[in-house]
Known about the structure:
Oligomer: single chain
Strand content: under 5%
CATH architecture of the largest domain: Orthogonal Bundle
Number of helices: 14
Low-confidence stretches: 5-12
Amino acid sequence: MGMESLSAVGTYPTQHPVRVGHLLGRGLVHAILVIGALVMLFPLIWMVMVSLDDNAQLYTIPPQYIPTVLHWSNYPQAVTAFPFFRYLLNTITITGAGLIGLLFSCTLVGYSFARLRWPGRDAFFIVLLATMMVPPQVTLIPLFIIWKHLGALDTYAPLIVPSFFGSAYLIFFTRQFFMTIPFELEDAARVDGCGYFTIYFRLMLPLSMPLIITLALFAFIWHWNDFVGPLIYLQSPQKYTLQLGLLAFNGQYQTDIPPLIAAATLMVLPIVVIFLFGQQYFIKSVVLSGLKG
């Protein structure tokens, strides 16, 4: 009994330094993560601070990162400088239609590449991946000429219709996720008499909610932040999007920066909110899509 108590007492000096070192290591890791998070959040914080500043304080030396007086009037000025709510409705229309198109096309094509066996499947998949190497600037002028001959300029068709033909990156992402679903579930569905589309709608999609939320997040960000597309194809001011509305702050000789940044802050806010609610599904889909290849 005495030997056991001595041995038990003797274990504490050896375990205590290990535990202290473990806590110090975790504390160091968390400190590095907090510093990295602050560095990544600095542009967003600076944007909010500038939106509450005025032009006089922006050009002071040394610069003042925190304004002495908060000018909340920049936000009403940002909303009234251009038809904000009309442009917001136009942006929501384009974003919503493009989101539906990308979800339908990418999941359907990704399901075909991942679960179906048809001649030339692997060859077509390689061709699909090869299109990711082509910069979008290369196809900009040919696409503009095509839409011009189709009479679709100054319409939302060039901004929405391409979404229904999918995205190479999102199709690849979807295919990787679908390959993680066990094939035994699909075999059991076939035994019950389910066809390909029934398996797609009633089995694959319900099991792929993290994937669908991630695709929706990507589609929303792409269409919501799109500036080049509306700038090229839209000509009527009443059809402009929020991105084009920011041009209203550009004067001939100077730019009213605080209201411009205030409008940009309002435009970034939906993306931040959606990402905060969907980040767990985004991380889960990324992890699962890398399990098989």
